[in-house]
Design a protein that fits this description.
The complex is a heterodimer of chains A (273) and B (195). By secondary structure, chain A is mainly alpha-helical. Chain A is built from 12 helices and no strands. The chains are: A mainly alpha (273), B mainly beta (195).
Chain lengths: 273, 195
């Protein structure tokens, strides 16, 4: 059993998928199926075994902020109906928080470089959160965006030399995949809400930025990841069943994820070894 | 007159004691921490850090010593630095957040807290290693200790080897456990030139 749980494939795909499926299914009556995504991601974090509150490194802050996003997502979903500006406000809040996440890295860089990375990271978070949270009422597109953000940041991070960020990203992708499966089976009545959209976008953005700052992911990969919540807005076929729409939306999103991975691979070919 | 002489001797005593303590700066081209750990149950993999800085002070008469060593984590190498058909080399991977996280923790440091002597020579160094923001005790055994005038530098220096064992998981470096060994053997080659 211990060997099984130490297997990276189990840690970053099977375990988060089933954790998200179970928690998401249990939360269906409360319209909080998206909470399964946070549960799935936490399953990966737990099994990888790298988490502790001290010292609170950038990687651990990503986990903390991701769980904060899930909590705020639940509260926002229960307390009020999200408006068009909700995504932008939440994006601004988590964009500012991204500076806290990466402060220990930015503080060691020359000021112009730190500003560039800091502003760039915050802008990525604002963009991804704003565009993904606005999908809160569309479980197909929201789930597909989360799936692509997780898989894209995960595989690109592995190509960018970080297995840890890669596992976290893949765990997020697998958890969003479980949510999408619920949507495919039960249809659009499975609510994504702010809990899924905020958690997936915050984690996807921070994992991507982490792979840039703590490993060797090129910025072009982040630009490709940023296209995902826009790509999943492409037409799905209004009369198609939910499972077909989910597949089509996933293909749109995974095109952006694939581009992120391609740019990461390209960078590994062009930069010095 | 006798009081003046005695007074002068008393005043001179701390200075004489201080003169016994010698300070040495680590010579970077001859000071390398090496590490070794189990690789997937097949073999022992070796690596080292190329950039170090620090100093040590020793008073052999009083049998006291202290040392500080800073290691630039970005200088880690295991000899695998050409990608070939791979996306990244092992050395590049070691620099990421998976292992040494050099962007966030560019230095690891070792500071002695107590040095035990065997005769006039240091035999064991008790100290604190700070790695990845975690500080844990690490005891180094001095395996070799030689002091003499350096044949090329023509200056007095002390050098040798010291070794110890740590668990990387205790510093939060848990990636690929247990496939990659947890127990890491540290071996330091060092040379300090008298200041």
């Amino acid at each position: 059993m211990a060997n099984l749980l130490n297997d990276p494939v189990i840690q970053s795909s099977v375990a988060p998928f089933f954790a998200a499926l179970i928690v998401g299914g249990a939360m269906l009556p409360l319209r909080l199926a998206g909470l399964g995504v946070a549960a799935g991601f936490l399953a990966t974090v737990y099994l990888v075994g790298n988490f502790a509150f001290s010292p609170l490194t950038a990687m651990r802050k990503i986990v903390v902020l991701g769980m904060g996003a899930a909590l705020i997502g639940v509260l926002a979903g229960l307390a009020f109906r999200p408006t068009r500006s909700t995504g932008l406000v939440l994006g601004a809040i988590f964009g500012a928080a991204s500076i806290w996440v990466f402060w220990s890295v930015l503080a060691q860089k020359p000021v112009p470089e730190a500003l560039l990375y800091g502003v760039g990271t915050a802008a990525l978070v604002v963009w991804l959160v704003a565009f993904t949270v606005s999908l809160h009422a569309d479980p197909v597109r929201a789930g597909a965006a989360g799936l692509a953000l997780g898989l894209g940041s995960g595989v690109a991070a592995v190509l960018g030399a970080s297995a840890l960020i890669g596992q976290y990203g893949l765990g997020l992708g697998a958890a969003c995949g479980a949510f999408l499966l619920l949507v495919m089976i039960l249809g659009r009545r499975v609510a994504a809400g702010t809990v899924l959209t905020l958690t997936a976008s915050v984690l996807g953005a921070l994992l991507g930025a982490g792979a840039l700052l703590l490993a060797q992911l090129p910025w072009t990969s982040l630009a490709a990841l940023a296209s995902i919540p826009v790509l999943v807005r492409l037409p799905l076929g209004a009369n198609s069943p939910a499972w077909v729409q989910a597949i089509v939306a996933s293909i749109y999103g995974l095109a952006g994820a694939g581009a992120a991975c391609f740019f990461a691979w390209l960078a590994s070919r062009s930069s010095a070894g | 007159m006798r009081k003046i002489v005695v007074g002068a001797l008393i005043l001179a005593m701390p200075l004489a004691a201080a003169a016994e303590a010698e300070t040495f700066a680590f010579d970077p081209p001859h000071t390398f921490p090496h590490f070794a750990l189990d690789y997937a149950g097949y073999a022992t993999i070796y690596g080292r850090f190329d950039k170090t800085a620090g100093r040590f002070t020793i008073d052999r008469a009083a049998k006291t010593a202290a040392l500080e060593l800073a290691v630039e984590t970005v200088s880690v190498t295991t000899g695998d630095n050409e990608r070939g058909s791979r996306a990244r080399t092992r050395d590049e991977h070691l620099r990421t957040a998976d292992f040494f996280n050099v962007a966030e923790f560019p230095r690891m440091t070792y500071k002695s807290t107590n040095v035990k002597f065997n005769g006039e020579d240091p035999a064991e160094i008790e100290g604190q290693l700070t790695l990845l923001g975690v500080t844990r005790p690490l005891t180094l055994k001095v395996d070799r200790w030689v002091c003499k005038v350096h044949p090329f530098y023509k200056k007095f220096g002390c050098g040798g080897n010291a070794s110890g064992v740590l668990k990387r998981s205790e510093f939060g470096m848990k990636i690929f456990l247990p496939v990659l060994g947890d127990e890491v053997r540290i071996t330091i080659m060092f040379l300090g030139m008298k200041q």
